[in-house]
Amino acid sequence: MQTDPNPKKSKDSPSNSDSTESTQSASPFPDDVLGKVLSFLNSDKDRSSVSLVCKDWYNAERWTRTKLFIGNCYSVSPEIVATRFPKITSVTLKGKPRFSDFNLVPQNWGADVHYWLVMFAKVYPFLEELRLKRMTVSDESLEILATAFPGFRALSLMSCDGFSTDGLKSVATHCRNLTELDIQDTDIDDFNGGWLSCFPENFGSLEVLNFASLDSEVNFDALERLVSRCKSLRVLKVNKSITLDQLQRLLLRAPQLMELGTGSFQQELLPGQFGDLESAFSNCKNLRTLSGLWEVTSVYLPVLYAACTSLTFLNLSYAALRSVEFGNLIAYCPNLRRLWVLDTVEDKGLEAVGSSCPLLEELRVFPADPFDQQLHRGVTELGFVAVSRGCSKLHYVLYFCWQMTNAAVATIVQNCPNFTHFRLCIMNPGRPDYLTNEPMDEAFGAVVKTCTKLQRLSVSGLLTDLTFEYIGKHAKNLETLSVAFAGSSDLGMQCVLEGCPKLRKLEIRDCPFGNAALLSGLEKYEKMRSLWMSSCNVTITACQQLAREMPRLNVEVMKDKESDDSQADKVYVYRSVAGPRRDAPPFVLTL
Amino acid sequence: MEGYSRKDVGCPQLLDLIPKEKEWLVKSAEETNYGLSEEKKLELRLGPPGGDWTFKQICGPTNESLLSFGFFPNTTAGATTTAPWQHQTKASFFPLMEKESCRIVELQGAEKKAFSPANTAVPNSSSAQKRTAPAPVVGWPPIRSFRKNLANGNSSKLSPESQKDFSKKPIENCPKNKFVKINMDGVPIGRKVDLKAFHSYEKLSSAVDELFRGLLAAQGDSSTNGIKKEVEGEKVISGLLDGSGEYTLVYEDNEGDRMLVGDVPWDMFVSTVKRLRVLKSSELPMLFCGSKPGKLSLDRSI
């Protein structure tokens, strides 16, 4: 978010003899025309640029902005936002650093949405949408949300915590115009499924309902009636408590669904039921996305075949399928663009992907047993290569494996030079190329040299500073970099900080980067959203120096109990116009 | 900071401690020269050597931090210490948690520091761990909690909740089971029920019926008044909640008071109930006399 710019005259604005507005302004456009034009701008980047042109444009922009995107909730304060933007109807807020997903951030760290909601209730009574990611949300906050905004329509909570199903009850009870309730990957107190029964009997506006990550059984009759009433329902993702025969009944009520998340697929079906389920699926002509499928076995996969032809996104990351049954299924999915699987499908399964899904753009392979250090099953470099051969449009990959080679990665990027997101996780830290025993530097070198559009990179394996030299030299479009157990010295991090002009997010753990590296990025950090460094070689003194020299950065340190007093075990640096945060818990030292 | 032993870029020191066939492959002798900082890991403490327990402090600024741990798998597969890669100065091992194997442990005061690789960890002997390799590092591989342990069909009972590791909540606050005793008039042997397995009073009521129906029938056969139930078979125990049946369900709450089951929301009931009793409805007036006023709803028909 930009602070007040220096008012500048735009050199490029076309002259217009009809200008009648304020004599102080050089803007040739009447305010209402400018406002109308700007109201078409949706991209935040464009709006930021516009707001920097001159004071008039700044004002016109702020009056016409309706969607607010805040990538780091601490980079700005609710007061500043409320003052600048009077007409917001949609808010997206992101909170904790991404490594909080992996338990590297303690509980009660912050990112509580409450004070934001209190402010919104005052200044944005017409708020319609709220999308939160990695924020703490309490039941009280949900109560405010449900009652303070009469036109509220869409709530999306991704990786949030702090609330319970009681909070959902408030939302279901009070939000008369709700079109979207989307709860993903959340960690909440799931007391019972009664919240779903709180939707009023005459309520029928839902278009999106996702409660897949909740556990408790909901009242199925209430759900069935709700689904019948919501004629515009296009996304329905139920939880594991919904059985197959219940699913079939839901599909009968909502054949118009475009995205379906099934419940548990583990149920003894009578032959008649199997046929019913099969025809229910084939009746869903608009199905594009399929997920859920917990405990699905090969016996029941065929019910999906009819629906598979039109699928563009198949999420099998909760279904531990073996290669043969998976291969059979995937043969029915020629139009897949996105595929998420477990590594139980093994290389053979990935070969089937390569031959069945020529349009594939995104592949994520998750480990079924990430801590099984003995057996190392799952996928290898061969599977990845096989996919790259068959799927030349592949540009997004997240791949968990136990072994990789430099040569394989080089082949992969040669087959698929358009990677925008390359996230490779070799699960044993510091593992070299298992054939040559060399570091994996050349692999990532190949990635950054070949994939010029690369925006996001996660590296792993045994890596020296050379990897980072390559990244600094070639990854000119890189925005997000994740590094773990890699590098040899400060030089590595310095190369990245000096070389990647578009870098926004840098997250590092367990690397030998120290104070010199940290301090080499002084001005850089103001151009970035955030830096995370944990279990590296950084001292508190250096962090203090950083904080002193860069007052517009917030430098936060968390210490491990056992470590030296001088060590800064976890460092989180981010730019902010709001100053140091006032809600930091005792274990966060703000420097 | 010592410990980063890779000094020259040119020749990477390879240390592959990932056991293959239970052998530790140590590629470079240099890596076994552990400095003083490594000795710390060999200190005698509760728990295997080298096990730095990293966890979250859940209860704010108190001296006690409630934690749950899983069993720390045996790391004595041959290695002297357990740093699998040279970048680590301390091996912050992270025992993989299964909810059912959790226990509360108390840590030394960690008011200011949320992350304390505890050296006073108490390994939980009721292990749910099947691994014998060194436990993984905290937050590695970078998988979100709900994705762990999806290996095969055994995961049927593994909800995202049960896969959460200790970092989420202390077990005390959100136990997965709540077993309470339940006794029935006329049946000398009591039973135990897990209230967390039911989500409503109706389910509890039918469970009580199932539990005691047979036992009650067996008692009836041996009773002296000669009422034989063999012809009818076992009688269904119904009307437990509304006073309409021969028996009524009551409970003892956390204040020691006897209460009729069914008055409060289910969740509240589960959190306050200490034990259950199935009483003959005809005996309820006796309870009215003995109980505190207002504790039993007097409008229940008997």
UniProtKB/TrEMBL annotation, chain A:
Residues 1-30 are annotated as: Disordered. Pathway: Protein modification; protein ubiquitination. Residues 13-27 have a biased composition (Low complexity). It comes from the Eukaryota. Residues 29-70 form the F-box domain. It holds the Pfam family LRR_6. Residues 1-12 have a biased composition (Basic and acidic residues). One of its GO terms (cellular component) is nucleus. GO terms for molecular function: auxin binding. Keywords: Auxin signaling pathway, Developmental protein, Nucleus, Ubl conjugation pathway. One of its GO terms (biological process) is pollen maturation. SUPFAM superfamilies: F-box domain, RNI-like. The keyword Nucleus applies. InterPro entries: COI1_F-box (IPR041567), F-box-like_dom_sf (IPR036047), F-box_dom (IPR001810), Leu-rich_rpt (IPR001611), Leu-rich_rpt_Cys-con_subtyp (IPR006553), LRR_dom_sf (IPR032675), Transp_inhibit (IPR041101). It is found in: Nucleus. This is TRANSPORT INHIBITOR RESPONSE 1-like. It comes from Olea europaea subsp. europaea.
From TrEMBL, chain B:
Residues 177-281 form the PB1 domain. Keywords: Auxin signaling pathway, Nucleus, Repressor, Transcription, Transcription regulation. GO terms for cellular component: nucleus. It comes from the Eukaryota. Coiled coil: none annotated. The keyword Transcription applies. InterPro entries: AUX/IAA_dom, AUX_IAA, PB1-like. Residues 117-130, 151-161 have a biased composition (Polar residues). The keyword tRNA-binding does not apply. SUPFAM superfamilies: CAD & PB1 domains (SSF54277). Residues 117-170 are annotated as: Disordered. It is found in: Nucleus. One of its GO terms (biological process) is regulation of DNA-templated transcription. PANTHER family: AUXIN-RESPONSIVE PROTEIN IAA17 (PTHR31734), AUXIN-RESPONSIVE PROTEIN IAA26 (PTHR31734:SF2). Homodimers and heterodimers. Belongs to the Aux/IAA family. Aux/IAA proteins are short-lived transcriptional factors that function as repressors of early auxin response genes at low auxin concentrations. Repression is thought to result from the interaction with auxin response factors (ARFs), proteins that bind to the auxin-responsive promoter element (AuxRE). Formation of heterodimers with ARF proteins may alter their ability to modulate early auxin response genes expression. This is Auxin-responsive protein.
